[in-house]
Amino acid sequence: MTSRAEYCVIACAEAWRDNGEVLASPMGLIPSFGARLAKRTFSPDLLLTDGEALLVGLDGEPEGWLPYRRHLTMVTGGRRHVMMGASQIDRHGNQNISCIGDWERPARQLLGVRGAPANTLNNPVSYWIPKHSARVFVERVDMVSGVGYDRAVGPYHRLPRVVSDLGVFDFETPDRTMRLASVHPGVTVDEVRAATGFALAGGDEVPSTREPTAEELRLIREVIDPKGLREREVPAR
After folding, report:
1. Which domain holds residue 141?
2. Does the keyword ATP-binding apply (predicted)?
3. 9 touches 220 (CB < 8 A)
4. Best label site of 110, 154, 158, 160, fewest CB within 10 Å?
C-alpha cells in the first residue's frame, strides 16, 4: 500500500518533469527524495548539487565543480528550479519566510527573506508544505519574501506547483491564482478547502495524485529512503 508520504515524494518529483538540464535545488527531505527520484526515472538530465561547490551524482559522488559564480549564473538565467518551503503562501503564490505579524512589531521572527526574491524572479520556484493549514495558506501573507504572480516581472518567473500533505496545486488559471490540481488518495476536496484560508480555483471534480509505478516505489523504499525517513515528515493518517 502506498503511504501519504510516498504520494508526496511522487508529487514533488513531478515538479521536475521535462525540465531538462537544469539545477534541481530541493530544500527539505521530501523534495530531496523527489528530485533524486526524478533524476533516476523521467528526468535523467537534472543536475544535483551538494549545496556548496560540487555537482553530485545519484549516490552523492562528485561529478563536477560548481563554483559560486557559476551557480549564480544558473540562478539568474532561469537554469535552476528550486523547491522551497513557506511559512505562509497566498492565492497568488506570494511566499513568506520572514516574520509573522505586523512588520513594525512582528509576533514571530522567522528565517528572513534570504534568497527568495532573487529565486522567484530569476528561476522557477515550487513549494513544499508538509502541514497544510489555514495558518499557512492565507488570504494575504504578512510579508512578501518570494514573489507571486500579482507582483512579478521578468522572463524567468514561474511557479510550477505547490505540494502539501493534502494535495497538489498550480496556477494554471486565467488570473494566475492557485488551483487545486489533485488531492492525495484518502483526502477530500472539502478537507482541502476547509484547511485553506482562501477560495481555491477549480471545481468539485478534482483528480487524485497519480499512483507511483512499482519501480518508483522500489526506488523510494530500497534505494532513496531505505530508513523510511519520509514517514516521519508525513506520518500515516
Report:
1. 4-231
2. no
3. yes
4. 154
Cα gap 23→80, rounded to integer Å: 4
Total domains present in the chain: 1
Tens digits of residue pLDDT in 74-127: 777 778 999 999 999 999 999 999 999 988 888 888 888 888 888 898 899 999
pTM of the model: 0.93
In this structure, is residue 196 part of a structural domain?
yes
Q: Let me know: does 62 contact 105? Beta carbons within 8 Å.
A: no
C-alpha angle 160/119/174, rounded to 5°?
35
Position 236 in a domain: no
113 within some domain? yes
**Cell numbers 510516498 label which residue?**
6
**Helix 29-40, helix 4-14: angle, nearest 10:** 60
Report yes or no on 198 lying in a domain: yes
Instruction: Report the CATH number that the domain containing residue 180 is assigned in CATH.
Output: 3.40.1080.10
